[in-house]
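Figure 2 data, in text form.
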Amino acid sequence: MNYEHILIIAKQAALAAGKFLERNYDRQTEIEYKGAIDLVTQKDRESQQLIHKIIKDSFPEHSILGEEDLTVEKDKELLWLIDPIDGTTNFAHALPIFCVSIAFMEKGIPQVGVVYVPLLDELFHAVRGKGAFLNKKQIHVSKKTELGKSLLATGFPYDRRVSEINNVDHFNKFIVRALCIRRMGSAAIDLCYTAAGRFDGYWELKLFPWDSAAGMLMVEEAGGTITDFSGNPFDPFKKECLASNTHIHSQMLEVLKL
C-alpha cells in the first residue's frame, strides 16, 4: 500500500474542506439538532461531500465512514474515517476552534492521519512509522513528568444531561490534581495538541472513530501513549480515550481509577 500517495490525497481533501469552511466561517448558517445539544450544519454535509468526492476520485474501491450520513461496516479492510467539522458547535457560534479530521485505516489500524485547523492554518499529519508533523515540522510530546504541573484537556459527551457517565466525576478529580484543564470542543485538536506538546495529557469518553483515529496516530508518532481508561491499547471504535506524553500516563490512569 502506498501510504505516501494516500497522505497526498488526505491532505488535498482536508485543505479543500478547510478552505471551504474558512470561506463560510462567521456567516449565518442553518443549524439542526441530532440530539438535545448535538448540532449539525449544512456546512458539515457540504464539507463531507467535498472530502468524499476527492477520496473516491482517487480510491473508488475504498470505504468511507463519515460523521454525516455515510456509513459502512467498520471491518472494511481499506477504510477512511472523516469528520468534516470536528467542533461543529464552535463553528456554528463563530468560535474559531474547529478542524477537518481524516484518517485512513488498513485492517483496523490507522496508517495515515491528517487534521487541518483552517483558521490557524495548522496542518497536522502522520504516517505510521514516519513521525508526526505540523506544517512540515516534526512534532513531539512534552517532557512534563508530574501531573501537578501538567496542562490537560478533556471534553464532555453529548448525552451528559441524561447519563451519569458524563465525565464530570473525572473532571472533578483531575481539576484538583493537574495544573489546569482546557476544554477546546474538538477531540481531534486536543489529540494533535497533545502530540505537539501543547497539552501534556487528554482524556475523554464516548468518542466516535472519526473523532479520534487521526489524532490517535499523531500521538503515537509524536512519542506519546494512548490507551483506554484501564491501560489497554486504544481502539477508536470503543468509547474511552486517554492520551498523554507517556511520562504522566500512569498518574492519569490512577486518577481515572479513583
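Caption note: Residues 147-257 form a domain with the D-Maltodextrin-Binding Protein; domain 2 fold (CATH 3.40.190.80).
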